[in-house]
Model the fold of this input.
Amino acid sequence: MGTTMWFRSARDALEWDALVSAHPGATGFHDWAWLTLQAECFDWRFDPLVVTSDGVPVGVFPVLLHRGVLARAVLPPFPFVGPLVPDHMLVAVMRAFRRWQLRHGVLVARYDLGPGAATDPGAAVARAGVTGLPDRTFVVDLVGSSPERLVHAMKNGARQSLRRAERKGVVIRPSEPGEVTEFLPRVLSESYSSRGVPSPYPEDIGARVERYAAARDDVYTATALVDGTIAGVIVVFTGHPVVTGWAGGTLRAFRAVNPSTALYHDVLQHALHTGHTAVDLVGEVDEGISRFKMSLGAVERPFTTVVSSPLPPSVRTGALALRRRVTVHG
Done:
């Protein structure tokens, strides 16, 4: 007799987060509070699907949909949101999810198999009958590291930037009240506009995230200062063994001093000090940003974006191309 896969709504945040934390591929983007916050920011609907096998909860499948008569999947401006289930069950879960789509009128669904979500995502995608696109992120391994090894693992240019920033009066410290509220939207706006698109986040994203961080102990925010003037901020999630970088950086006005290297290095030091195993710097964005992340000692890690649909393959391919553009600008 075969195994029966089914989905039900999570009873509460405690059940959801316990199932997320039990999976080695868990990221800050899977947490109930984060998905709820983003749903509120964008007026999405968050469906927290618990995956059951013969009635026993085995994992989660977060679904984000636009509100309205038509059930349309969203394109979140952050990656990795997708199923976290035991590896040997992944194909069956993706097949079961296609049946869930048909029952709920979701003709095209997009989700990710993030780093650690699957041993062989390409094979799983093929066996499940969905369409996948390889993507990549950049991860700094902290196992067996030390403050000295973090610097040694950097490329020579990054080490020089770190020393130059110190000479130029760059200081990194935990963010103080009001700083994320004011400067995160400015950093996001500059980052997206430099790639020819507006920031997808609401104007009050800084205030929302600052309130979110103040109420939790699994969010780290840091501020970069140049001679006492705030140059940028960064926000990362620390609730799992691998720290998840979300958003942040420094303003273009301070580019000559390059405080970004010091800001990201501070995240790595914080993660090392708090016992984390790695830091995921999240996504490639473009080749320049990819080189910057690798200069910090990060290595490339693959993940997969999936389009699941009963529609013809050409529709799935087009949806993947759109997801790719959103990721590149994210």
Summary: The chain has eleven helices and eleven strands. Residues 234 and 248 are 4 Å apart (CA to CA). The longest helix spans residues 313-328.
